[in-house]
TrEMBL record:
Belongs to the universal ribosomal protein uS4 family. SUPFAM superfamilies: Alpha-L RNA-binding motif. Residues 3-92 form the Small ribosomal subunit protein uS4 N-terminal domain. Residues 93-157 form the RNA-binding S4 domain. This is Small ribosomal subunit protein uS4. The lineage of its organism: Bacteria, Bacillati, Bacillota, Bacilli, Bacillales. NCBIfam families: PRK05327.1, rpsD_bact. Gene3D superfamilies: Ribosomal Protein S4 Delta 41, Chain A, domain 1, RNA-binding S4 domain. GO terms for cellular component: small ribosomal subunit. HAMAP family: Ribosomal_uS4_B. InterPro entries: Ribosomal_uS4, Ribosomal_uS4_bac-type, Ribosomal_uS4_CS, Ribosomal_uS4_N, S4_RNA-bd, S4_RNA-bd_sf.
């Protein structure tokens, strides 16, 4: 599991947006890097921009380098879809991310905890692997125990837009993946062209 012990919001401040998804993210009030020279603008090299976009994407989905590289290699082998799109689709259909998108948790990290501790079922079966790939038509549901958690209830009470490629039944606390999302629908502000360029030469 990815460690969040170090400066969890550093990447948010560097990007100038709350990549973590938290309404209390320091990046909202201080959209610039920390430190003495944080407010100064620095001209980035093309390599620096490529690296930063890749780091952003890893941070948003909470994946480590080895796993990210595996997803990239899978995307390269997908000859039917542009590599950047295939990479985004693979990340977006991770179980922990779908749990987050459905509103069961307020952050990807909290969603991962629900999965790891066995509070999520897929088609009636308990799945405790955050990286599990959700298939089209699969039904994702909170366990009865998890529905009683205050943090879960609070998250479900939040007004959050559910992406069009998902469906959600509030009363039953169940959701499903309707189709593989197009990259234009995925709510992630990352230049995948730069990500692919970086990975191709790394």
């Amino acid at each position: 599991m990815m460690s969040h012990s170090h400066s969890h919001h550093t990447m948010c401040r560097r990007a100038g947006v709350p990549l973590c998804g938290s309404a209390r993210c320091p990046g909202l009030k201080r959209p610039y890097p920390g430190g003495q020279h944080g407010r100064k603008s620095h001209r980035q090299t093309n390599y620096g921009m490529q690296l930063f976009e890749k780091q952003k994407l890893k941070f948003i989905y909470g994946v480590q380098e080895r796993q990210f590289r595996r997803y990239y290699e899978e995307a390269v082998r997908n000859t039917q879809t542009p590599t950047g799109t295939a990479l985004l689709q693979r990340l977006e259909t991770r179980l922990d991310n779908i749990v987050y998108r459905l509103g069961y948790a307020r952050s990807i990290h909290a969603a991962r905890q629900l999965v790891v501790h066995g509070h999520i079922t897929v088609d009636g079966h308990s799945i405790d692997r955050p990286s599990y790939r959700v298939r089209i038509g699969s039904v994702i549901q909170l366990t009865n125990k998890a529905r009683e958690f205050r943090v879960t209830r609070d998250s479900l009470d939040d007004e959050r837009r559910i992406p069009a490629y998902l469906t959600f039944d509030v009363g039953a606390a169940t959701g499903a993946l309707l189709r593989v999302p197009d990259d234009s629908e995925i709510p992630v502000d990352v230049d995948t062209t730069l990500v692919v360029e970086y990975c191709a030469h790394a």
